Structure formats: structure tokens, C-alpha cells
Amino acid sequence: MATTTTGFEPVTEAHDHIDVYVRAFNSGDPDLLLALYADDAVSVWEGQAMTGQPRRDALAEILSAGPKMTATIRESHITADAALMIVDWTVETPQPDGTAETMSGQAVDVLRRAADGRWRHVIDHPHGAER
Where are the domains of the chain? Predict the structure, then answer.
């Protein structure tokens, strides 16, 4: 599979999106991660919906701490050009004292296949399935 200018393969299968997302997250590069979002995507972090530059700024701040993510798809439903993914995730962030802060959750992710055949986030809600 050919790589893109981001260095990752185009995500042409919805089930592959989470693996590429984790690799982009773990790279620490917010631009790699944002390439996996539609331009009009909404991210709901800590109860606040974000798009555009505020989302990029929040991601850059999160990634600057050097967190590492693991994730698995718990449940998926795909129809035509839309996909709903329930994802179990864990993020470990190194702390100054050498320990790691661990966070985990169950995300609700909505993906859309664009005209170019690539799947991208349109809704990203890391704690959406925990209610």
C-alpha cells in the first residue's frame, strides 16, 4: 500500500483506522493525527466540543507530554460510507518523577469515507461510551 505525505498508508478500510490512529498519536506529531480527521470533524474532550485550530492546539498540548496509546475495537458497525466504532483505549503519559499517569476509556468514534476512499473521523468522543 502506498504511503501518503503523512508517512502512513491511506486508511481505505474502516477497521484499519484505529491502528493508524494509534501510530499517529504515538508519533507525537499533531499534524499526522489531524490528517485522520475530516475538515469538519468534531472532537469532544472533557465535555467540550472542538473543531479546527482549537482542536489542533489541544492535540499539540496533549502530545507534547509524550503519551503512548494502545487501543482495540470493541464493537463496529459499518454501512456504506459511515462507521460507528466503540474503542477501548489506554494512554500512559510519563511524569517527571519517572512514573506514568494512566488514563483509559471507551470511545465512540464516527468515521466517514470521503470521495477519495479514505476513512476519517467526523466525531471523536473518547469517553462517549462510558455513560
Answer: 14-125
| pTM for this model (two decimals) | 0.88
For the domain made up of 14-125, the CATH class stated in words is: alpha beta
The model's pLDDT over 52-105, given as tens digits with 9 standing for 90+, comes to 999 999 999 999 999 999 999 999 999 999 999 999 999 999 999 999 999 999
Which three-class secondary structure string do you get for the chain?
Answer: CCCCCCCCCCCCCHHHHHHHHHHHHHHCCHHHHHCCEEEEEEEEECCEEECHHHHHHHHHHHHCCCCEEEEEEEEEEEECCEEEEEEEEEEEEECCCCCEEEEEEEEEEEEEECCCCCEEEEEEECCCCCC
